[in-house]
Design brief:
The chain is of the alpha+beta class. The protein contains three helices and six strands. Strands 1-2-3-4-6-5 form a six-stranded antiparallel sheet. Strand 5 and strand 6 form a beta hairpin. The termini are far apart.
Length: 168
């Protein structure tokens, strides 16, 4: 996997900004944006999950164990979807991790033009529920997720989770 650091101050769309009076001056030591590229093959799923885990640990992101496990599950599901459904038109995928003062955003980008559809639970099938799982983990964490088209005609699927869990 290739790592392409992109600096600071990329914020998730749809997420709340920290009020200026509560934010320390300058970025926190763990804030930033990192981008990894990988081939759209099965081996990239665990590699992406490990790369995200190692990055968050190395940057000392103050994420709870539950949040970390949720993020890693989301990365696994999104990379798996890109490998299974987009590889023919997108031999390479990108995983981006953006960390702000109070949130973490993970996204997976591919060059396939079709927007994925979350399937309803069908007890007769063993797969097809990855996006439902991503949506549920994100919702339970108090985060937001979405799919957007890219300028190149592909798509990026992202989930942003708060570093401090919201009270439900």
């Amino acid at each position: 996997m290739e790592n392409h650091g992109r600096g600071f101050d990329s914020r998730p769309e749809g997420g709340a900004d920290v009020p200026p009076d509560r934010r320390p001056p300058g970025p926190l030591p763990y804030e930033g944006v990192w981008r990894f590229t990988a081939p759209a093959v099965d081996a990239s799923v665990p590699q992406a999950r490990h790369a995200v885990r190692d990055l968050l640990f190395r940057q000392q992101v103050p994420a709870s164990d539950d949040l970390l496990q949720g993020l890693l599950l989301i990365v696994s599901e999104l990379v798996t979807n890109a490998v299974r459904h987009a590889a023919l038109l997108s031999p390479t995928l990108a995983v981006e991790v953006a960390v702000g003062a109070e949130w973490v955003r993970v996204s997976v980008e591919d060059n396939h033009p079709y927007r994925p559809t979350a399937l309803e639970a069908d007890h007769g099938q063993t797969g097809g529920r990855g996006l439902l799982l991503v949506r549920e983990v994100t919702r339970e964490s108090g985060g937001v997720c979405d799919v957007e088209h890219t300028a190149s005609g592909g798509k990026v699927i992202w989930a942003a989770l708060p570093l401090t869990p919201s009270v439900v």
